[in-house]
Amino acid sequence: MTPLEILAAAASGAPAPRIPIFCNLLDQGAKELGMHAKEYFSKGECVAEAQLRMLKRYGQDNVWSLHYVGKEAELLGCKEILFADDGVPNVADFVIKNLDDVATFEIPADITQVPAWQSIAECMSILRGEVGATHPICAYLTASTTLPSILMGMDKWMELFLLGPFDVRDELLRKCSDFFQQHISALRAAGANVLIYSSPFGSPYFVGKNIIQKTVLPWMRRDLQPGGVDDVVYYCGMAPFNEVIELVFDELKIKTHHISPLADLAEAKRLINTRGLTCGVIDDIKMINWTEDETRAEVKRIIDIGKPGGHFLFCNGVMPMTVPEANIRGMVEAAFEYGRLE
Amino acid sequence: MFEAYIQSYNEAVFETDKQAALEVVNRALAEGYSPEDIVFKPVIPAVEAMMTLIENDPDANLAQHFMTAQIAADVTERMLEKFSKPPEMIGRVVIGAAYGDLHSLGKRIVSGCLKSLMVDVIDLGINVNAEKFVDAAVDEDAQVIAVSAMMVHTATGENGSLRVRALLKERGLEDQIKLAVGGAPYRFDPELYAKVGADAWAPDGVTAAKVIVQLIHEVKHDAA
């Protein structure tokens, strides 16, 4: 079976030789090609080549088109990203500097015509051509209720979100949701088929469940309405969200859930059961200091919880660059070993 | 009578209702209570109660932390302007986001709580290099350096807390200045704070204020 078929089997509960094994290696690409981060991320062909090289080395099931989260801010006018050779690029220029900017903030008529999109298009085109027929291509999208945090800073967004003025907040949310709808449509058209819906404000770790129901949920519905949710993964930026799994099923109909390493995986699996796909996620920040044996033991622990009854996928979070290569290899090898189903 | 204000204020804070909290304060002022009464009776105990609540409730959310800090800092700032004489501060902290880190929410929550607990806060902003942290702590006679890092590389990198620790050691300042850290990576690996040379960490901004106050007391106790 191809990785795409294995993923489909896990989602539906059909027989398969093993569970799907996703490995998220986003920041390792520059090092893989011996480039500085800024130069690496400027070329979609480099991002694609690094993904394909790492796919060949580790043999996991997926590749990623994501360059870095701030790319969405660049699509919306951000002019400066702070690159680091040892970690994740940061948004260094907020598009919305004060609340008056919300009124003049505009979503491009067609984001695929924006210069910042071109490297994504290039990357997607290569990945689709090389492995699109066999492997899931993951893409990352920030929910409308979280996107403002990279447009104006998390603290200012939290203040506007909770304290208002609410007409300004809702105008910004509408624009962000419009952008989201364009973005998801463009990524689907380019060939992405596993869409990570990043919605930290949809986690009770960020805001109370009542706020999620009253304020966040309607915007999530609006974000996702066009195109459906069959290819969407609910993800809260590594924050736990077991408390709202039921809500996500009922209100958003999303069936695939990326469970935080800080959450109770057994509880999540019980809640999701055979209705959807539980993604068990290893705490890859701990992998920085673990031995290979400790990494393997944790992979086994996670798979032992999730594998019985099927409908389970193993993956990591964001894999910091300081995680030893031996631990990445050990993680993937252990996942293949313990994830066998036949 | 004042007990009723304390109760109403506490309820407003727990409900994260800033407007209601400010209304309670304004009513108490109109009744003739002093700004000192308001800060030392409802505000500080409410922050401390919220700290206890959050410490004992793993489900307390970021919005509650943020609003607790916002309300406490706002009310305290308004009242301090009206104090008959400046209050005695319990200590001083320099705070900032680590080198390469542009996130400001965490330190804003910590700062808000600290201010209401009568701690002087010197906010160095974001993307702060280690030398600046240590120089500022020395210049300002601070007992604690607090470094916020929301990304793994800014938490563990050579130019972050590790460098602050190295400078404190080099300059013989380790007894006078303690190092506290916080931010998402530390939640995922509770042992990480020690690996980056910190004296203490906290899983959230509100608890961080409590931890920093403890460090201030330690430094002052050792110096006495």
How is this fold's topology laid out?
The complex is a heterodimer of chains A (342) and B (224).
Chain A: H1 3-12, H2 29-32, H3 37-42, H4 44-58, E1 63-64, H5 71-75, E2 81-84, E3 87-91, H6 101-104, H7 115-131, E4 137-142, H8 148-152, H9 154-163, H10 166-190, E5 194-198, H11 209-224, E6 232-235, H12 245-252, E7 256-258, H13 265-272, E8 277-282, H14 292-306, E9 312-316, H15 325-338
Parallel strand pairs in A: 1-4, 4-5, 5-6, 6-7, 7-8, 8-9
Antiparallel strand pairs in A: 2-3
Chain B: H1 2-14, H2 18-30, H3 35-56, H4 62-80, E1 91-97, H5 105-116, E2 119-123, H6 130-139, E3 144-148, H7 152-156, H8 161-170, E4 178-182, H9 184-188, H10 192-195, E5 200-202, H11 205-223
Parallel strand pairs in B: 1-2, 1-3, 3-4, 4-5
Helix pairs in contact in B: 1-2, 1-3, 2-4, 3-4, 4-5, 5-11, 6-8
Q: Determine and state the CATH class of the largest domain in chain B.
A: Alpha Beta
SSE arrangement of chain A, N to C:
HHHHEHEEHHEHHHEHEHEHEHEH
CATH architecture call of the largest domain in chain B: 3-Layer(aba) Sandwich
How many helices of chain B in DSSP terms? Answer: 11
Largest sheet of chain A: 7 strands, parallel
